[in-house]
Structure prediction request, 499 residues.
Amino acid sequence: MLITELKPRETIESLADGKKVFVINCQGCKEVHFPEKEANELQKEWSEKGIVTGIITTDYICNPENMELRLQAHKEEIEAADVVLVFSCGVGVQTIAGYLEEKKVCAACDTYPLPGFQGVTPLEYKCDQCGECYLNLTGGICPITACSKSLVNGQCGGAKNGKCEVDSEMECGWERIYRRLEQIGRLDVLKCPTQVRNFATDEEVSK
Amino acid sequence: MKITELFERGEFVVSAEVGPPKGFHVEHLLEEAKTYLSGITAVNVTDNQSSVMRLGSLAMCKALKDEGLTPIYQLTCRDRNRIALQSDLLSAAMFGIENLLLLTGDHTKLGDHPQAKPVFDLDSVSLIHAVTELEKGVDLGGNELIGEAPKFAKGAVVSPCSDSVDAQLAKMERKVRAGADYFQTQAVFEPEKFIKFMEKAKQFGKPVQVGIIIPKSAGMAKFMNNNVAGIHVPDEMIEELKKDKEKTKAGITGVEIAARIIKECKPYCQGVHIMALGWESKVPDLLKLAEI
Prediction:
């Protein structure tokens, strides 16, 4: 099982601050607990403020065929938005960021693990359920799973010709992140404060 | 002595590197360091370089210091979590070791214990941040240290000839913001790339030591081209190494090439860091030829 929890209110609000937002809610596969009520309340507030260009609520946003069609159907609303805010586990956010390469795609949730079946995703994206989703600092590419050292402050010096020092078949995750941030004009997020991972988060949740 | 004091005085800082052995007898290494490296500013001691298990960097630093040399303690995030790293930093301070080089470290899979757990609890940037915090008298857990806070010269690395140099500069900036005081670079064989890099890097206002490897043979150069990140030895240098095999074998060609690179880079940087890789005995000749 996984649990998705909304990020702290001020974090989510800073993502939407002064912007037009397109919202994607994943109500999950049966393995994921989704904070439906809290997400609805927040989105209702935003709709009343008139900052929401559109909402998709569905399950399995990581299912490629399903999602591609849905995104096409909402093309104009997505284009009208400054940011696409995804309420899902890390895999869902990465899937959407992969489709909307030129759009700023942000995660509204953190994902935590629970014992039991972890769900299946048909795509290559992975979520490590680290509980402190970094996707908003990395252009929607997960540094925990795309970097073989799970570095959170940028690439090491080990990549050769864009490939990871551990696996010559694997692209350097941080070079991908850098290119994506360049593409969406968000290299400024690399100026964020030094990130120090918190390995205590899962314990805190189960308390 | 902190090497940052020398940078501040405008001195051209020269350091070289020694790798501890896979064993605990270091007499030979100390003798070599005293003979060939005592004329330079400081000596880096690698931390289980290339993920190969060896004698510890901290112990070797202490041994060098006792012999009157100035050690630079290299510390990677591969083998220790934040508790062990901070603890070792306090140990270094107790020994009077003041110069650090803080790195992420190679992955365990590249070394002689590929089965080992890669730690990477911190990375180069958060390790620099941790040292900055310790210098304020607080550890990463937010707890106060007892007594005087340690003070270090915090070094970091950057790869100026990398094929993703803009990403390298972005990372360099993060290191500066986390508190890095000076930089040593990956080995440079293309001075023109280094000079271009320095044009951009000088905005950070931190001293940079150009990294130098003495090329030992055409085979070594090709090996580095195929396997070592951020290093490219141009074809004409490989040809130069091939031309007179005896001269190359004696180390003369390699020293000539390295001296030329130092001379070309010198006006654009604040020091040189020599990774002699076993050729420590060539360092005095190299510095003489490079007119340092």
Observations:
- Chain B has one domain: 3-289.
- The interface with chain A takes residues 82, 104-107, 109-110, 118, 120-126, 128-130, 140, 157-159, 162-164, 166-168, 170-171, 173-174, 177-178, 186, 227-230 of chain B (CB under 8 Å).
- Residues 3-289 of chain B form a domain with the TIM Barrel fold (CATH 3.20.20.220).
- The beta strands of chain B are 13-18, 42-45, 71-76, 99-103, 153-158, 182-187, 208-213, 271-275.
